[in-house]
Write a structure and sequence with these properties.
Elements: E1 5-7, E2 10-12, E3 27-33, E4 38-47, E5 50-58, H1 68-74, E6 88-93, E7 96-101, H2 104-112
Antiparallel strand pairs: 1-2, 3-4, 3-7, 4-5, 5-6
Length: about 120
């Protein structure tokens, strides 16, 4: 449910609903693919089902959010239980089937999850 109010042509949203901070004009999003998994990062381009992301992390396992929708709005509830590997500078994904724009709260919480490694 989208919570916002417009006053004199200006749209206001609750603090926890603020859109994520753009970087160089790119939106921070979560992308779910058909077979490669789920990624969070800046959406550089989309053409059909092909997506290019910058500063992207694979969201291999998350905790404290019931769905990707909740993750995109509220962020992770249990950051130390999540398994998000390191960020890659650029990734090209095919078969993107869902793109969710993140709130600022979600973006910050995803970025704060410790890097998960095989060590």
């Amino acid at each position: 449910m989208k919570k916002e109010i417009t006053v004199d042509g200006v749209v206001y949203v609750p603090t926890n609903q603020k859109k994520a901070k753009d970087k160089d004009g790119l939106k921070y999003v979560i992308v779910r693919t058909y077979s490669a998994g789920v990624f969070a990062g800046y959406l550089e381009s989309r053409e059909g089902k092909e997506v290019v992301m910058r500063e992207a992390r694979r969201l291999w396992y998350w905790a404290g959010s019931a769905s990707l929708s909740e993750l995109a709005v509220s962020g992770v509830g249990k950051p130390n239980d999540c398994k998000f590997p390191c960020e890659v500078d650029k990734i090209e994904l095919t078969e993107a089937i869902e793109i969710l724009t993140c709130t600022e709260l979600a973006q910050e919480s995803i970025k704060k999850v410790p890097v998960w490694t095989a060590q």
